[in-house]
């Protein structure tokens, strides 16, 4: 075990599979079992974990990134800054330097390599981080401002602010793009939530390939396992993937979700299922 505590990410190859339902309920069960745990909503482009774990007293902290600020009185418009920018965030047109903030990754190359030292860094707000507690459970989440295109910087800030020593349940964004990679890349274990449909299988395969490339340990949950076909189960068997749990379609889950309630409060049997999931994950990572 490392000093930062166990990080368990819950991810999915596509949206709508039940990822947030699993993440929020798993965090709540672990908290009620007396474990030190924090739920971290890293789906910063479309966070909704707070709908199910509404903090009793919420704090919001603004998050900013550093972007270049050109001092045109020092600039000779040589164009080196635009040449070294790998993200096309700078353009030099005649005697004008244009900055496209949404493309800037804050790498600082333009500032370091400017021969006239005409570039400084300035803070640009990109969103906020909310934090609080829900029935004793620590809850954190990031939220990008409308129109922001760069989710990974927000996720990085959120993860840096997570307290040490606690088990962290990371609610990842759906898919397999850069925001997902940032959310799961240093997780101790990843739970992939899928569904037994052609789309579910296709996106599960993409997610499995991503996690194998990142060398992450992971297992699979098949949600609504009784309303699709058997190809997802066959794929898991053929690939040697550990199916942690299968959840059949249950109207009670849908009703609880629509009302913003935890499924462990709608049906006590789901508390036992999530406790078993917790134990299975801890067994997988060798945590007692």
What features would you describe in this structure?
- It is a single chain.
- The protein is α/β, with parallel strands linked by helices.
- The chain folds into 2 domains: 7-60 and 126-285, 3-Layer(aba) Sandwich (Rossmann fold), CATH 3.40.50.300; 72-117, Alpha-Beta Plaits (2-Layer Sandwich), CATH 3.30.70.
- The protein has helices at residues 19-32, 80-84, 109-113, 152-160, 178-184, 198-214, 231-239, 251-258, 263-266, 268-285; strands at residues 7-12, 37-41, 59-70, 90-93, 96-99, 119-134, 137-144, 167-174, 189-194, 218-223, 243-247.
- The longest helix is centred in the last third of the chain and has 18 residues, at 268-285.
- The model has no long low-confidence stretch (mean pLDDT 93).
| End-to-end distance | 10 Å
Report the C-alpha radius of gyration, rounded.
22 Å
Strand content: 25-35%
Secondary-structure element sequence? Answer: EHEEHEEHEEHEHEHEHEHHH
Q: Give the CATH superfamily of the largest domain.
A: P-loop containing nucleotide triphosphate hydrolases
Number of strands: 11
* CATH topology assignment of the largest domain: Rossmann fold
Helix count, DSSP H or I runs of 4 or more residues: 10
Low-confidence stretches: none
CATH architecture of the largest domain: 3-Layer(aba) Sandwich
Main sheet properties: 9 strands, mixed
């Amino acid at each position: 075990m490392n000093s930062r505590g166990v990080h368990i990410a819950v991810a999915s190859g596509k949206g709508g599979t039940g990822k947030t339902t699993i993440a929020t309920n798993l965090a709540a069960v672990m908290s009620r079992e007396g474990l030190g745990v924090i739920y971290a909503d890293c789906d910063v482009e479309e966070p909704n974990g707070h709908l199910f774990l509404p903090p009793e007293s919420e704090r919001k902290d603004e998050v900013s990134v550093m972007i270049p600020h050109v001092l045109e009185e020092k600039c000779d418009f040589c164009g080196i800054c635009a040449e070294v920018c790998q993200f096309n965030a700078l353009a030099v047109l005649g005697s004008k330097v244009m900055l496209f903030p949404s493309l800037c990754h804050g790498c600082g190359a333009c500032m370091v390599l400017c021969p006239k030292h005409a570039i400084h860094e300035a803070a640009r707000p990109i969103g906020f981080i909310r934090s609080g507690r829900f029935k004793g459970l620590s809850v954190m989440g990031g939220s990008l401002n409308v129109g922001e295109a760069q989710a990974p910087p927000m996720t990085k800030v959120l993860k840096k602010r997570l307290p040490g020593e606690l088990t962290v349940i990371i609610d990842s964004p759906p898919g397999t793009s850069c925001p997902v990679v940032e959310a799961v890349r240093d997780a101790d274990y990843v739970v992939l939530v899928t569904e037994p449909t052609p789309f579910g299988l296709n996106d599960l395969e993409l997610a499995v390939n991503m996690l194998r490339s990142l060398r992450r340990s992971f297992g699979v949950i098949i949600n609504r396992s009784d309303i699709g076909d058997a190809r997802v189960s066959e794929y898991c068997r053929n690939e040697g993937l550990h199916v942690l749990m299968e959840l059949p379609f249950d109207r009670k889950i849908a009703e609880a979700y629509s009302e913003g309630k935890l499924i462990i409060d709608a049906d006590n049997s789901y508390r036992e299922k999530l406790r078993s999931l917790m134990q299975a994950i801890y067994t997988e990572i060798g945590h007692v």
